[in-house]
């Protein structure tokens, strides 16, 4: 029971600390705060960029049907593809 009360007091003190920073308009009180902010938003930016790239890839392939059209992607039955590795020959 004392753990729960202590946890509640810790959360309340952190909330009060954040609110006091907002009130004083000094969100970043140390270099560590600035570094954490930069790392966090860099991570969020990379995630958003990857999501946008996936959406562009999905939309591009759905709209223009780039795979499967043309002789480059059509394979005849029984034909070999690739390069023979002569070093594997006995």
Automatic annotation (TrEMBL):
Chaperone in keyword set: no
Main location: membrane
Transmembrane segments: 34-56
Family annotation (Pfam families): SMIM5_18_22 (PF15831)
Stretch list, region Disordered: 71-90
Subcellular location as annotated: Membrane
Origin superkingdom: Eukaryota
Example GO BP: regulation of cell population proliferation
UniProt keywords, alphabetically: Membrane, Transmembrane, Transmembrane helix
GO terms for cellular component: membrane
The keyword Transferase is assigned to this record: no
UniProt topology in membrane: Single-pass membrane protein
PANTHER family associated with the record: CLCA DOMAIN-CONTAINING PROTEIN, SMALL INTEGRAL MEMBRANE PROTEIN 22
Name by which UniProt lists this protein: Small integral membrane protein 22
Higher taxonomy: Eukaryota, Metazoa, Chordata, Craniata, Vertebrata
């Amino acid at each position: 029971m004392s753990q729960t009360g202590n946890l509640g007091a810790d959360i309340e003190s952190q909330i009060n600390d954040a609110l006091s920073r907002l009130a004083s308009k000094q969100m970043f009180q140390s270099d560590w705060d600035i570094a954490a902010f930069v790392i966090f938003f860099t991570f969020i930016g990379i995630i958003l960029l990857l999501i946008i790239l996936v959406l562009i890839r999905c939309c591009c392939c759905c709209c223009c049907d780039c795979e499967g059209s043309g002789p480059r992607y059509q394979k005849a039955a029984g034909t070999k593809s690739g390069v023979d590795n002569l070093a594997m020959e006995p």
